[in-house]
Amino acid sequence: MIKTAIKVAITGTGAALPETRLTNQDLEKMVDTTDEWIITRTGIRERRLLEKGRSNLDLAEAAAVMALENAGLKGAELDLILVATVTPDHLFPSTACLLQARLGAHHAAAFDLSAGCSGFIYALSVGYQFILSGACRRVLVVGAEVLSRITDWEDRATCVLFGDGAGAVVLQPVREEDRGLLCFELGADGTGAGLLALPAGGSACPASAETIKNRQHFIRMNGNEVFKFAVRVVPDTLARLMEQGGVSAAQLDYLFLHQANLRIIESARKRLNLPPERVPVHIDRYGNMSSASIPVLLHEEAAAGRLKRGHLLAAVAFGAGLTWGGMLMRW
Ligand code: COA
Hints:
Elements: E1 7-16, E2 21-23, H1 24-28, H2 35-42, E3 46-48, H3 56-71, E4 80-84, H4 95-103, E5 109-113, H5 119-132, E6 139-146, H6 156-159, E7 164-174, E8 180-188, E9 196-197, H7 209-213, E10 220-221, H8 223-245, E11 254-257, H9 262-271, H10 283-286, H11 293-303, E12 312-319, E13 323-330
Parallel strand pairs: 4-5, 4-6, 11-12
Antiparallel strand pairs: 1-7, 2-3, 6-7, 8-13, 9-10, 12-13
Helix pairs in contact: 3-4, 8-9
This protein binds coenzyme A.
Coenzyme A binds near residues 117, 223, 227 and 261.
Protein backbone atom coordinates (compact mmCIF):
# COMPACT_ATOMS: atom_id res chain seq x y z
CA MET A 1 0.00 0.00 0.00
CA ILE A 2 1.29 3.45 -0.89
CA LYS A 3 1.74 5.44 2.33
CA THR A 4 1.28 9.09 1.49
CA ALA A 5 0.20 12.34 3.06
CA ILE A 6 -2.04 13.06 0.06
CA LYS A 7 -5.49 11.48 0.24
CA VAL A 8 -7.43 11.07 -3.01
CA ALA A 9 -11.19 10.71 -2.76
CA ILE A 10 -14.25 10.35 -4.99
CA THR A 11 -15.98 13.71 -4.63
CA GLY A 12 -18.84 13.20 -7.10
CA THR A 13 -20.61 10.35 -8.91
CA GLY A 14 -22.95 10.14 -11.89
CA ALA A 15 -24.69 7.54 -14.06
CA ALA A 16 -26.59 7.37 -17.33
CA LEU A 17 -28.80 4.51 -18.50
CA PRO A 18 -30.74 4.43 -21.77
CA GLU A 19 -34.54 4.46 -21.44
CA THR A 20 -35.12 1.46 -23.73
CA ARG A 21 -35.53 -1.84 -21.88
CA LEU A 22 -35.04 -5.30 -23.41
CA THR A 23 -36.60 -7.96 -21.20
CA ASN A 24 -35.94 -11.71 -21.15
CA GLN A 25 -39.43 -12.13 -22.63
CA ASP A 26 -38.38 -9.93 -25.56
CA LEU A 27 -35.31 -12.15 -26.04
CA GLU A 28 -37.48 -15.29 -26.05
CA LYS A 29 -38.94 -13.93 -29.31
CA MET A 30 -35.50 -13.28 -30.83
CA VAL A 31 -33.44 -16.42 -30.04
CA ASP A 32 -33.98 -19.94 -28.67
CA THR A 33 -33.93 -19.08 -24.95
CA THR A 34 -36.20 -18.75 -21.93
CA ASP A 35 -36.68 -16.23 -19.14
CA GLU A 36 -36.12 -19.10 -16.69
CA TRP A 37 -32.73 -20.10 -18.24
CA ILE A 38 -31.46 -16.53 -18.25
CA ILE A 39 -32.52 -15.82 -14.65
CA THR A 40 -31.18 -19.05 -13.17
CA ARG A 41 -27.86 -19.00 -15.10
CA THR A 42 -27.14 -15.25 -14.93
CA GLY A 43 -29.57 -13.38 -12.63
CA ILE A 44 -30.45 -10.98 -15.47
CA ARG A 45 -34.10 -9.96 -16.00
CA GLU A 46 -33.71 -7.03 -18.37
CA ARG A 47 -31.04 -4.76 -19.82
CA ARG A 48 -30.97 -1.26 -21.35
CA LEU A 49 -30.22 -0.60 -25.01
CA LEU A 50 -29.03 2.70 -26.39
CA GLU A 51 -31.41 4.25 -28.90
CA LYS A 52 -30.39 4.59 -32.56
CA GLY A 53 -28.66 7.88 -33.31
CA ARG A 54 -27.09 8.13 -29.82
CA SER A 55 -23.58 6.96 -28.99
CA ASN A 56 -21.14 6.08 -26.24
CA LEU A 57 -20.21 9.76 -26.05
CA ASP A 58 -23.81 10.75 -25.21
CA LEU A 59 -23.91 8.28 -22.31
CA ALA A 60 -20.43 9.30 -21.11
CA GLU A 61 -21.41 12.97 -21.23
CA ALA A 62 -24.63 12.49 -19.25
CA ALA A 63 -22.82 10.54 -16.51
CA ALA A 64 -19.91 13.02 -16.47
CA VAL A 65 -22.17 16.10 -16.20
CA MET A 66 -23.91 14.52 -13.19
CA ALA A 67 -20.60 13.60 -11.50
CA LEU A 68 -19.22 17.12 -12.04
CA GLU A 69 -22.40 18.67 -10.66
CA ASN A 70 -22.26 16.44 -7.58
CA ALA A 71 -18.60 17.40 -7.05
CA GLY A 72 -19.44 21.10 -7.49
CA LEU A 73 -17.01 21.46 -10.42
CA LYS A 74 -17.16 22.82 -13.97
CA GLY A 75 -15.62 21.04 -16.95
CA ALA A 76 -13.12 23.87 -17.34
CA GLU A 77 -11.67 23.00 -13.92
CA LEU A 78 -10.67 19.44 -14.93
CA ASP A 79 -7.00 18.50 -15.45
CA LEU A 80 -7.54 15.00 -16.86
CA ILE A 81 -10.35 12.96 -18.43
CA LEU A 82 -10.10 9.16 -18.59
CA VAL A 83 -12.71 7.06 -20.36
CA ALA A 84 -12.60 3.30 -19.84
CA THR A 85 -14.42 1.59 -22.69
CA VAL A 86 -14.33 -1.29 -25.16
CA THR A 87 -17.00 0.39 -27.28
CA PRO A 88 -15.64 3.86 -28.07
CA ASP A 89 -17.41 5.95 -30.71
CA HIS A 90 -14.37 5.46 -32.97
CA LEU A 91 -11.02 3.66 -32.85
CA PHE A 92 -9.72 7.23 -32.89
CA PRO A 93 -10.14 9.98 -31.88
CA SER A 94 -10.83 8.80 -28.34
CA THR A 95 -14.21 9.21 -26.67
CA ALA A 96 -12.30 11.07 -23.93
CA CYS A 97 -11.29 13.81 -26.41
CA LEU A 98 -14.83 14.10 -27.76
CA LEU A 99 -16.05 14.34 -24.16
CA GLN A 100 -13.43 16.99 -23.35
CA ALA A 101 -14.92 19.17 -26.11
CA ARG A 102 -18.51 18.60 -24.94
CA LEU A 103 -17.61 19.49 -21.34
CA GLY A 104 -15.60 22.58 -22.30
CA ALA A 105 -12.70 21.06 -20.37
CA HIS A 106 -10.09 23.18 -22.17
CA HIS A 107 -7.37 22.53 -19.61
CA ALA A 108 -7.76 18.76 -19.45
CA ALA A 109 -5.64 16.07 -21.08
CA ALA A 110 -7.84 13.22 -22.28
CA PHE A 111 -7.46 9.60 -23.30
CA ASP A 112 -9.35 6.31 -23.47
CA LEU A 113 -8.22 3.21 -21.64
CA SER A 114 -8.95 -0.36 -22.75
CA ALA A 115 -8.89 -3.06 -20.08
CA GLY A 116 -12.16 -4.86 -20.78
CA CYS A 117 -14.62 -4.99 -17.89
CA SER A 118 -11.77 -4.08 -15.49
CA GLY A 119 -11.37 -0.77 -17.33
CA PHE A 120 -12.97 1.44 -14.69
CA ILE A 121 -10.73 0.12 -11.88
CA TYR A 122 -7.67 0.47 -14.12
CA ALA A 123 -8.67 4.05 -15.01
CA LEU A 124 -9.37 4.89 -11.38
CA SER A 125 -5.86 3.74 -10.45
CA VAL A 126 -4.37 5.90 -13.25
CA GLY A 127 -6.29 8.98 -12.08
CA TYR A 128 -5.20 8.25 -8.51
CA GLN A 129 -1.51 8.13 -9.54
CA PHE A 130 -1.79 11.41 -11.46
CA ILE A 131 -3.11 13.13 -8.33
CA LEU A 132 -0.59 11.44 -6.01
CA SER A 133 2.28 12.55 -8.24
CA GLY A 134 1.06 16.14 -8.04
CA ALA A 135 0.54 16.35 -11.82
CA CYS A 136 -3.27 16.79 -11.57
CA ARG A 137 -5.81 17.93 -9.01
CA ARG A 138 -9.16 17.23 -10.65
CA VAL A 139 -9.66 14.04 -12.63
CA LEU A 140 -12.82 12.71 -14.27
CA VAL A 141 -12.99 8.92 -14.62
CA VAL A 142 -15.77 7.47 -16.80
CA GLY A 143 -16.78 3.90 -17.63
CA ALA A 144 -19.09 3.95 -20.67
CA GLU A 145 -20.27 1.11 -22.89
CA VAL A 146 -22.64 0.48 -25.78
CA LEU A 147 -22.23 -3.28 -25.89
CA SER A 148 -25.50 -3.70 -27.80
CA ARG A 149 -23.67 -2.45 -30.91
CA ILE A 150 -21.09 -5.29 -30.80
CA THR A 151 -23.51 -8.00 -29.65
CA ASP A 152 -24.46 -10.80 -32.02
CA TRP A 153 -28.24 -10.78 -31.65
CA GLU A 154 -28.38 -14.25 -33.26
CA ASP A 155 -26.03 -15.83 -30.66
CA ARG A 156 -28.08 -16.90 -27.63
CA ALA A 157 -24.93 -17.71 -25.64
CA THR A 158 -23.90 -14.04 -25.53
CA CYS A 159 -26.81 -11.79 -26.52
CA VAL A 160 -28.69 -12.39 -23.26
CA LEU A 161 -25.78 -11.09 -21.17
CA PHE A 162 -24.94 -7.52 -22.11
CA GLY A 163 -26.40 -4.03 -21.69
CA ASP A 164 -25.55 -0.36 -22.26
CA GLY A 165 -24.79 2.35 -19.69
CA ALA A 166 -22.24 4.73 -18.23
CA GLY A 167 -20.97 5.75 -14.81
CA ALA A 168 -18.56 8.51 -13.83
CA VAL A 169 -16.66 9.77 -10.79
CA VAL A 170 -14.59 12.83 -9.97
CA LEU A 171 -11.30 12.31 -8.11
CA GLN A 172 -9.75 15.08 -6.02
CA PRO A 173 -7.17 15.42 -3.25
CA VAL A 174 -8.86 15.84 0.15
CA ARG A 175 -7.66 16.95 3.57
CA GLU A 176 -9.56 14.40 5.69
CA GLU A 177 -7.33 11.64 7.09
CA ASP A 178 -10.12 9.07 7.30
CA ARG A 179 -11.16 9.26 3.67
CA GLY A 180 -9.90 8.26 0.22
CA LEU A 181 -8.47 5.49 -1.94
CA LEU A 182 -6.26 3.08 0.00
CA CYS A 183 -4.80 0.59 -2.47
CA PHE A 184 -5.20 -1.17 -5.82
CA GLU A 185 -4.52 -4.65 -7.17
CA LEU A 186 -4.26 -4.87 -10.96
CA GLY A 187 -3.34 -7.87 -13.06
CA ALA A 188 -3.48 -9.36 -16.54
CA ASP A 189 -3.07 -12.72 -18.26
CA GLY A 190 -2.77 -12.23 -22.01
CA THR A 191 -2.59 -15.98 -22.59
CA GLY A 192 -6.38 -15.88 -22.15
CA ALA A 193 -6.88 -13.14 -24.76
CA GLY A 194 -8.83 -15.44 -27.08
CA LEU A 195 -11.46 -16.30 -24.48
CA LEU A 196 -13.29 -12.99 -24.86
CA ALA A 197 -12.67 -10.86 -27.93
CA LEU A 198 -13.97 -8.75 -30.79
CA PRO A 199 -12.14 -10.55 -33.62
CA ALA A 200 -12.31 -8.00 -36.47
CA GLY A 201 -12.26 -4.26 -37.03
CA GLY A 202 -8.75 -3.66 -35.68
CA SER A 203 -5.58 -3.49 -37.77
CA ALA A 204 -4.92 -7.24 -37.45
CA CYS A 205 -8.19 -8.05 -39.17
CA PRO A 206 -9.67 -4.97 -40.84
CA ALA A 207 -13.33 -4.83 -41.82
CA SER A 208 -14.12 -6.60 -45.09
CA ALA A 209 -17.09 -8.29 -46.73
CA GLU A 210 -15.62 -11.55 -45.40
CA THR A 211 -15.41 -10.37 -41.76
CA ILE A 212 -18.98 -9.13 -41.91
CA LYS A 213 -20.21 -12.41 -43.44
CA ASN A 214 -18.38 -14.35 -40.70
CA ARG A 215 -19.94 -12.17 -37.97
CA GLN A 216 -16.46 -11.21 -36.70
CA HIS A 217 -17.52 -7.72 -35.61
CA PHE A 218 -19.42 -9.17 -32.66
CA ILE A 219 -18.31 -10.34 -29.20
CA ARG A 220 -16.95 -13.90 -29.14
CA MET A 221 -16.74 -15.52 -25.73
CA ASN A 222 -15.94 -18.88 -24.21
CA GLY A 223 -18.42 -18.45 -21.34
CA ASN A 224 -17.38 -21.52 -19.36
CA GLU A 225 -13.68 -20.64 -19.31
CA VAL A 226 -14.37 -16.98 -18.47
CA PHE A 227 -16.68 -18.15 -15.67
CA LYS A 228 -13.93 -20.37 -14.20
CA PHE A 229 -11.40 -17.52 -14.47
CA ALA A 230 -13.81 -15.13 -12.68
CA VAL A 231 -14.59 -17.53 -9.85
CA ARG A 232 -10.83 -17.90 -9.24
CA VAL A 233 -9.69 -14.31 -9.70
CA VAL A 234 -12.37 -12.50 -7.64
CA PRO A 235 -11.53 -14.11 -4.26
CA ASP A 236 -7.78 -14.04 -5.02
CA THR A 237 -7.85 -10.32 -5.80
CA LEU A 238 -9.98 -9.58 -2.75
CA ALA A 239 -7.63 -11.54 -0.49
CA ARG A 240 -4.59 -9.63 -1.80
CA LEU A 241 -6.42 -6.29 -1.47
CA MET A 242 -7.41 -6.97 2.12
CA GLU A 243 -3.89 -8.14 2.97
CA GLN A 244 -2.40 -5.01 1.39
CA GLY A 245 -4.90 -2.78 3.19
CA GLY A 246 -4.57 -4.66 6.50
CA VAL A 247 -8.33 -5.22 6.79
CA SER A 248 -10.60 -8.25 7.07
CA ALA A 249 -13.78 -9.11 5.17
CA ALA A 250 -15.84 -8.53 8.31
CA GLN A 251 -14.71 -4.87 8.31
CA LEU A 252 -16.02 -4.22 4.79
CA ASP A 253 -19.11 -2.02 4.74
CA TYR A 254 -19.53 -2.56 1.01
CA LEU A 255 -18.24 -4.90 -1.67
CA PHE A 256 -18.82 -3.76 -5.26
CA LEU A 257 -18.34 -6.59 -7.74
CA HIS A 258 -18.34 -6.47 -11.50
CA GLN A 259 -21.85 -7.43 -12.60
CA ALA A 260 -21.24 -10.28 -15.05
CA ASN A 261 -23.17 -13.13 -13.46
CA LEU A 262 -25.17 -13.28 -10.22
CA ARG A 263 -23.69 -16.72 -9.50
CA ILE A 264 -20.16 -15.26 -9.48
CA ILE A 265 -21.30 -12.41 -7.18
CA GLU A 266 -23.10 -14.78 -4.82
CA SER A 267 -20.18 -17.20 -4.62
CA ALA A 268 -17.83 -14.36 -3.56
CA ARG A 269 -20.39 -12.91 -1.12
CA LYS A 270 -21.00 -16.26 0.60
CA ARG A 271 -17.29 -17.09 0.76
CA LEU A 272 -16.71 -13.79 2.63
CA ASN A 273 -19.84 -14.30 4.73
CA LEU A 274 -21.21 -10.85 3.85
CA PRO A 275 -24.97 -10.09 4.05
CA PRO A 276 -26.69 -9.24 0.72
CA GLU A 277 -27.19 -5.56 1.63
CA ARG A 278 -23.40 -5.11 1.73
CA VAL A 279 -22.95 -6.47 -1.81
CA PRO A 280 -25.23 -4.35 -4.04
CA VAL A 281 -26.47 -5.79 -7.31
CA HIS A 282 -27.95 -4.26 -10.46
CA ILE A 283 -27.27 -7.09 -12.92
CA ASP A 284 -30.98 -8.02 -12.76
CA ARG A 285 -31.88 -4.57 -14.16
CA TYR A 286 -28.96 -3.76 -16.48
CA GLY A 287 -27.10 -6.97 -17.38
CA ASN A 288 -23.32 -6.83 -17.86
CA MET A 289 -22.32 -3.24 -18.73
CA SER A 290 -18.57 -3.97 -18.70
CA SER A 291 -16.59 -0.95 -17.46
CA ALA A 292 -19.81 0.91 -16.54
CA SER A 293 -21.02 -1.66 -14.03
CA ILE A 294 -18.97 -0.61 -10.96
CA PRO A 295 -19.30 3.19 -11.34
CA VAL A 296 -23.07 2.79 -11.80
CA LEU A 297 -23.21 0.69 -8.61
CA LEU A 298 -21.20 3.35 -6.76
CA HIS A 299 -23.48 6.10 -8.01
CA GLU A 300 -26.67 4.25 -7.09
CA GLU A 301 -25.49 3.61 -3.52
CA ALA A 302 -24.16 7.17 -3.15
CA ALA A 303 -27.31 8.78 -4.59
CA ALA A 304 -29.51 6.71 -2.27
CA GLY A 305 -27.52 8.08 0.68
CA ARG A 306 -26.42 4.61 1.79
CA LEU A 307 -22.68 5.32 1.46
CA LYS A 308 -21.52 7.20 4.54
CA ARG A 309 -18.28 9.07 5.11
CA GLY A 310 -15.67 6.64 6.47
CA HIS A 311 -17.36 3.49 5.11
CA LEU A 312 -14.81 0.89 4.01
CA LEU A 313 -15.43 -0.23 0.41
CA ALA A 314 -13.81 -2.81 -1.83
CA ALA A 315 -14.43 -3.23 -5.56
CA VAL A 316 -13.28 -6.01 -7.87
CA ALA A 317 -13.70 -6.41 -11.63
CA PHE A 318 -12.48 -8.89 -14.25
CA GLY A 319 -12.76 -9.11 -17.99
CA ALA A 320 -11.31 -9.27 -21.48
CA GLY A 321 -7.55 -9.29 -21.79
CA LEU A 322 -7.77 -11.20 -19.54
CA THR A 323 -7.59 -8.52 -16.87
CA TRP A 324 -8.59 -8.03 -13.26
CA GLY A 325 -8.50 -5.12 -10.88
CA GLY A 326 -9.49 -4.29 -7.33
CA MET A 327 -9.49 -1.24 -5.11
CA LEU A 328 -10.01 -0.51 -1.44
CA MET A 329 -11.19 2.87 -0.19
CA ARG A 330 -12.78 4.84 2.63
CA TRP A 331 -15.76 6.80 1.35
N1 COA B 1 -30.72 -19.91 -23.47
C1 COA B 1 -30.88 -21.23 -23.34
N2 COA B 1 -29.86 -22.10 -23.39
C2 COA B 1 -28.64 -21.61 -23.54
C3 COA B 1 -28.39 -20.24 -23.67
C4 COA B 1 -29.49 -19.38 -23.64
N3 COA B 1 -29.37 -18.04 -23.74
N4 COA B 1 -27.07 -20.05 -23.81
C5 COA B 1 -26.48 -21.25 -23.76
N5 COA B 1 -27.44 -22.21 -23.60
C6 COA B 1 -27.27 -23.64 -23.49
C7 COA B 1 -25.98 -24.13 -24.09
O1 COA B 1 -26.11 -24.35 -25.46
C8 COA B 1 -25.76 -25.41 -23.32
O2 COA B 1 -26.57 -26.41 -23.89
P1 COA B 1 -26.03 -27.95 -24.01
O3 COA B 1 -25.83 -28.37 -22.59
O4 COA B 1 -27.17 -28.62 -24.70
O5 COA B 1 -24.77 -27.86 -24.80
C9 COA B 1 -26.34 -25.13 -21.95
O6 COA B 1 -27.20 -23.98 -22.11
C10 COA B 1 -25.29 -24.80 -20.91
O7 COA B 1 -24.42 -23.84 -21.47
P2 COA B 1 -23.18 -23.32 -20.67
O8 COA B 1 -22.42 -22.37 -21.52
O9 COA B 1 -22.43 -24.48 -20.07
O10 COA B 1 -23.92 -22.53 -19.50
P3 COA B 1 -23.32 -21.89 -18.23
O11 COA B 1 -24.01 -22.39 -17.04
O12 COA B 1 -21.80 -21.90 -18.25
O13 COA B 1 -23.75 -20.37 -18.41
C11 COA B 1 -22.86 -18.25 -19.06
C12 COA B 1 -23.31 -19.62 -19.52
C13 COA B 1 -22.39 -17.47 -20.27
C14 COA B 1 -24.04 -17.56 -18.41
C15 COA B 1 -21.71 -18.41 -18.03
O14 COA B 1 -20.72 -19.27 -18.57
C16 COA B 1 -21.07 -17.11 -17.68
O15 COA B 1 -21.68 -16.26 -17.07
N6 COA B 1 -19.78 -16.99 -17.99
C17 COA B 1 -19.04 -15.80 -17.64
C18 COA B 1 -19.38 -14.74 -18.63
C19 COA B 1 -18.79 -13.44 -18.27
O16 COA B 1 -18.65 -13.12 -17.14
N7 COA B 1 -18.47 -12.69 -19.30
C20 COA B 1 -18.03 -11.38 -19.22
C21 COA B 1 -16.76 -11.26 -18.53
S1 COA B 1 -16.56 -9.61 -18.16
